[in-house]
Amino acid sequence: AQSVTQPDARVTVSEGASLQLRCKYSYSGTPYLFWYVQYPRQGLQLLLKYYSGDPVVQGVNGFEAEFSKSNSSFHLRKASVHWSDSAVYFCALSESGSFNKLTFGAGTRLAVCP
Amino acid sequence: DMKVTQMPRYLIKRMGENVLLECGQDMSHETMYWYRQDPGLGLQLIYISYDVDSNSEGDIPKGYRVSRKKREHFSLILDSAKTNQTSVYFCASSLYEGRTEVFFGKGTRLTVV
Question: Among A8, A47, A65, B77, which is most buried by a count of CB atoms within 10 Å?
Protein backbone atom coordinates (compact mmCIF):
# COMPACT_ATOMS: atom_id res chain seq x y z
CA ALA A 1 0.00 0.00 0.00
CA GLN A 2 1.14 3.53 -0.63
CA SER A 3 2.09 5.97 2.09
CA VAL A 4 3.24 9.55 2.49
CA THR A 5 5.62 10.77 5.19
CA GLN A 6 6.14 14.37 6.17
CA PRO A 7 8.99 14.13 8.66
CA ASP A 8 8.63 17.63 10.09
CA ALA A 9 5.50 18.18 12.14
CA ARG A 10 6.34 21.83 12.69
CA VAL A 11 8.63 24.28 10.90
CA THR A 12 9.37 27.85 11.96
CA VAL A 13 11.05 30.33 9.63
CA SER A 14 11.56 34.07 9.58
CA GLU A 15 9.70 36.22 7.11
CA GLY A 16 11.72 36.62 3.94
CA ALA A 17 13.68 33.41 4.47
CA SER A 18 13.59 30.49 2.08
CA LEU A 19 11.53 27.43 2.84
CA GLN A 20 11.64 23.72 2.16
CA LEU A 21 8.98 21.33 3.42
CA ARG A 22 9.86 17.70 3.00
CA CYS A 23 7.70 14.92 1.65
CA LYS A 24 8.66 11.29 1.08
CA TYR A 25 6.39 8.73 -0.47
CA SER A 26 6.21 4.99 -0.79
CA TYR A 27 4.56 3.60 -3.90
CA SER A 28 5.65 0.92 -6.32
CA GLY A 29 4.28 2.60 -9.43
CA THR A 30 4.43 6.13 -10.80
CA PRO A 31 2.57 8.37 -8.38
CA TYR A 32 0.58 11.50 -8.88
CA LEU A 33 1.67 13.97 -6.21
CA PHE A 34 0.05 17.02 -4.69
CA TRP A 35 0.65 19.72 -2.13
CA TYR A 36 -2.33 21.22 -0.33
CA VAL A 37 -2.45 24.11 2.13
CA GLN A 38 -4.92 24.51 4.98
CA TYR A 39 -5.38 27.94 6.51
CA PRO A 40 -7.01 28.22 9.94
CA ARG A 41 -10.68 27.18 9.95
CA GLN A 42 -10.57 26.54 6.20
CA GLY A 43 -10.67 23.55 3.94
CA LEU A 44 -7.69 22.36 1.94
CA GLN A 45 -6.63 24.25 -1.14
CA LEU A 46 -4.49 22.84 -3.93
CA LEU A 47 -1.06 24.47 -4.22
CA LEU A 48 0.39 22.38 -7.03
CA LYS A 49 0.38 18.95 -8.59
CA TYR A 50 2.72 16.64 -10.48
CA TYR A 51 1.54 14.10 -12.99
CA SER A 52 4.51 13.66 -15.32
CA GLY A 53 7.18 15.53 -17.28
CA ASP A 54 9.33 18.30 -15.83
CA PRO A 55 10.12 17.28 -12.26
CA VAL A 56 9.91 20.88 -11.06
CA VAL A 57 6.35 22.12 -10.95
CA GLN A 58 5.18 25.63 -10.21
CA GLY A 59 2.22 26.42 -8.03
CA VAL A 60 0.37 29.38 -6.68
CA ASN A 61 1.85 32.16 -4.56
CA GLY A 62 5.46 31.42 -5.59
CA PHE A 63 5.54 27.83 -4.40
CA GLU A 64 7.27 25.11 -6.36
CA ALA A 65 7.99 21.44 -5.78
CA GLU A 66 10.49 18.98 -7.19
CA PHE A 67 9.74 15.34 -7.86
CA SER A 68 12.58 12.87 -7.42
CA LYS A 69 11.88 9.28 -8.34
CA SER A 70 15.28 8.12 -7.11
CA ASN A 71 14.68 9.65 -3.68
CA SER A 72 10.92 9.01 -3.59
CA SER A 73 10.45 12.63 -2.64
CA PHE A 74 8.35 15.63 -3.54
CA HIS A 75 9.69 18.55 -1.52
CA LEU A 76 7.95 21.92 -1.48
CA ARG A 77 9.99 25.12 -1.75
CA LYS A 78 9.53 28.84 -1.66
CA ALA A 79 12.28 31.42 -2.13
CA SER A 80 10.93 34.03 0.30
CA VAL A 81 8.09 33.37 2.73
CA HIS A 82 5.51 35.86 3.94
CA TRP A 83 3.68 35.84 7.27
CA SER A 84 0.49 34.93 5.38
CA ASP A 85 2.08 31.61 4.40
CA SER A 86 1.59 30.40 7.97
CA ALA A 87 -0.65 27.34 7.62
CA VAL A 88 -0.61 23.57 7.60
CA TYR A 89 0.78 21.97 4.45
CA PHE A 90 -0.17 18.49 3.32
CA CYS A 91 1.58 16.33 0.81
CA ALA A 92 -0.65 13.78 -0.92
CA LEU A 93 -0.35 10.95 -3.41
CA SER A 94 -2.73 9.12 -5.69
CA GLU A 95 -2.21 6.00 -7.70
CA SER A 96 -2.18 6.03 -11.44
CA GLY A 97 -5.65 4.99 -12.52
CA SER A 98 -7.23 6.22 -9.30
CA PHE A 99 -6.47 9.86 -9.61
CA ASN A 100 -8.51 11.37 -6.89
CA LYS A 101 -8.25 8.78 -4.14
CA LEU A 102 -5.71 10.74 -2.18
CA THR A 103 -3.38 9.40 0.48
CA PHE A 104 -2.24 12.24 2.73
CA GLY A 105 0.77 12.81 4.89
CA ALA A 106 0.27 13.96 8.46
CA GLY A 107 0.94 17.58 7.57
CA THR A 108 3.57 20.17 8.46
CA ARG A 109 2.55 23.24 10.41
CA LEU A 110 4.46 26.26 9.15
CA ALA A 111 4.90 29.31 11.36
CA VAL A 112 6.40 32.41 9.78
CA CYS A 113 7.81 34.85 12.30
CA PRO A 114 8.09 38.57 11.60
CA ASP B 1 -18.62 31.14 -6.78
CA MET B 2 -17.53 27.50 -6.76
CA LYS B 3 -17.73 25.98 -3.34
CA VAL B 4 -18.34 22.98 -1.16
CA THR B 5 -20.56 23.74 1.80
CA GLN B 6 -20.68 21.67 4.96
CA MET B 7 -23.29 21.81 7.68
CA PRO B 8 -23.07 22.04 10.58
CA ARG B 9 -19.58 23.41 11.20
CA TYR B 10 -19.51 22.27 14.81
CA LEU B 11 -21.44 19.46 16.46
CA ILE B 12 -21.44 17.83 19.87
CA LYS B 13 -23.20 14.49 20.27
CA ARG B 14 -23.50 11.90 23.00
CA MET B 15 -22.18 8.41 22.52
CA GLY B 16 -24.85 6.23 20.93
CA GLU B 17 -26.66 9.08 19.19
CA ASN B 18 -27.06 9.17 15.44
CA VAL B 19 -25.18 11.82 13.53
CA LEU B 20 -25.89 13.33 10.13
CA LEU B 21 -23.28 15.46 8.39
CA GLU B 22 -24.38 17.18 5.23
CA CYS B 23 -22.43 18.43 2.26
CA GLY B 24 -23.44 20.35 -0.83
CA GLN B 25 -21.62 21.56 -3.90
CA ASP B 26 -22.70 24.00 -6.58
CA MET B 27 -20.34 22.88 -9.35
CA SER B 28 -22.32 19.91 -10.74
CA HIS B 29 -19.40 17.68 -9.83
CA GLU B 30 -19.90 13.97 -10.37
CA THR B 31 -17.53 12.74 -7.68
CA MET B 32 -17.75 13.53 -3.98
CA TYR B 33 -15.75 12.37 -1.00
CA TRP B 34 -15.81 12.21 2.78
CA TYR B 35 -12.53 12.39 4.69
CA ARG B 36 -11.73 12.60 8.38
CA GLN B 37 -8.76 14.48 9.76
CA ASP B 38 -7.05 13.49 12.97
CA PRO B 39 -3.92 15.00 14.53
CA GLY B 40 -0.78 13.31 13.26
CA LEU B 41 -2.66 11.28 10.67
CA GLY B 42 -3.55 13.70 7.92
CA LEU B 43 -6.79 13.04 6.06
CA GLN B 44 -8.19 9.56 5.60
CA LEU B 45 -10.78 8.66 2.96
CA ILE B 46 -14.04 7.29 4.36
CA TYR B 47 -16.25 7.05 1.28
CA ILE B 48 -16.24 8.13 -2.33
CA SER B 49 -19.32 8.67 -4.45
CA TYR B 50 -19.06 8.56 -8.23
CA ASP B 51 -22.61 9.82 -8.80
CA VAL B 52 -26.13 9.43 -7.43
CA ASP B 53 -26.47 6.07 -5.63
CA SER B 54 -22.98 5.02 -6.76
CA ASN B 55 -20.89 4.91 -3.61
CA SER B 56 -17.71 3.06 -2.77
CA GLU B 57 -15.85 2.44 0.46
CA GLY B 58 -12.66 4.31 1.08
CA ASP B 59 -9.88 3.32 3.45
CA ILE B 60 -11.79 3.60 6.76
CA PRO B 61 -15.53 3.00 6.11
CA LYS B 62 -16.27 1.05 9.28
CA GLY B 63 -18.86 2.80 11.44
CA TYR B 64 -20.02 5.09 8.65
CA ARG B 65 -22.52 5.07 5.84
CA VAL B 66 -23.33 7.57 3.14
CA SER B 67 -26.24 8.70 1.05
CA ARG B 68 -26.28 10.47 -2.29
CA LYS B 69 -29.72 10.99 -3.76
CA LYS B 70 -28.93 14.18 -5.66
CA ARG B 71 -25.70 14.94 -7.50
CA GLU B 72 -25.09 18.13 -5.51
CA HIS B 73 -25.67 16.62 -2.08
CA PHE B 74 -23.70 13.96 -0.16
CA SER B 75 -24.43 12.93 3.43
CA LEU B 76 -22.33 11.08 5.98
CA ILE B 77 -24.20 9.13 8.64
CA LEU B 78 -22.90 7.74 11.88
CA ASP B 79 -25.31 5.27 13.40
CA SER B 80 -24.74 5.16 17.15
CA ALA B 81 -21.72 7.44 17.36
CA LYS B 82 -18.62 6.39 19.25
CA THR B 83 -16.09 8.53 21.08
CA ASN B 84 -13.35 7.45 18.67
CA GLN B 85 -15.33 9.10 15.88
CA THR B 86 -14.52 12.50 17.36
CA SER B 87 -12.72 14.19 14.49
CA VAL B 88 -12.89 16.86 11.84
CA TYR B 89 -14.78 15.68 8.79
CA PHE B 90 -14.14 17.11 5.34
CA CYS B 91 -16.33 16.78 2.33
CA ALA B 92 -14.81 17.26 -1.10
CA SER B 93 -15.83 17.12 -4.73
CA SER B 94 -14.26 16.87 -8.17
CA LEU B 95 -15.66 17.15 -11.67
CA TYR B 96 -15.14 13.44 -12.19
CA GLU B 97 -12.82 10.72 -10.94
CA GLY B 98 -9.85 11.73 -13.05
CA ARG B 99 -7.25 14.44 -13.42
CA THR B 100 -9.44 17.14 -12.04
CA GLU B 101 -8.93 19.30 -9.01
CA VAL B 102 -10.49 18.21 -5.76
CA PHE B 103 -12.29 21.01 -3.90
CA PHE B 104 -12.67 20.79 -0.14
CA GLY B 105 -15.26 22.19 2.24
CA LYS B 106 -14.31 23.94 5.47
CA GLY B 107 -14.97 20.88 7.60
CA THR B 108 -17.26 19.83 10.42
CA ARG B 109 -15.75 19.42 13.87
CA LEU B 110 -17.63 16.55 15.56
CA THR B 111 -17.18 15.81 19.24
CA VAL B 112 -18.72 12.63 20.65
CA VAL B 113 -18.91 12.66 24.43
Answer: A65
